[in-house]
Design brief:
The protein has about 120 residues and is mostly helical. Helices cover about 60% and strands about 5% of the residues. About 0% of the residues are buried.
């Protein structure tokens, strides 16, 4: 029932499947396995997608940033210098709240002076 009319071919004569993302080329006349060439259209499309995603991500980050670039850079530099442990989080929050309150007080004083 499982007898085949011809003996099975050795594993080395079975052609290998092409790697993903490549286009198989016809076999040569001398029996060498076919060569593969990269599918540049898919590679280009993937690269354009990565670039477009990076540009859109940067644009959204700039539009939704809660602070100006100078303030954000200052905050990042301060956190890098301090090492930022868990105990520092509350003290940093207190400092930020005090600074924000002082800024608001200055703005209120400026508005009051402008109105009088």
């Amino acid at each position: 029932m499982f007898n085949s009319p011809s003996p099975p071919r050795p594993a080395s004569s079975i052609p290998k499947a092409p790697p993903p993302g490549s286009i198989p080329q016809p076999a040569s006349d001398d029996g060498r396995p076919y060569d593969t060439v990269p599918d540049w259209q898919n590679i280009g499309l993937f690269t354009v997608g990565i670039a477009l995603g990076a540009v859109l991500g940067a644009a959204v980050a700039l539009l939704l940033a809660p602070a100006s670039g100078e303030q954000t850079r200052h905050r990042i530099a301060r956190r890098v210098r301090s090492g930022r442990g868990d105990e520092d989080v509350w003290s940093e929050l207190a400092e930020e709240l005090e600074r924000a309150a002082a800024e608001r007080e200055e703005e209120v004083e400026e508005v009051e002076e402008a109105l009088t």
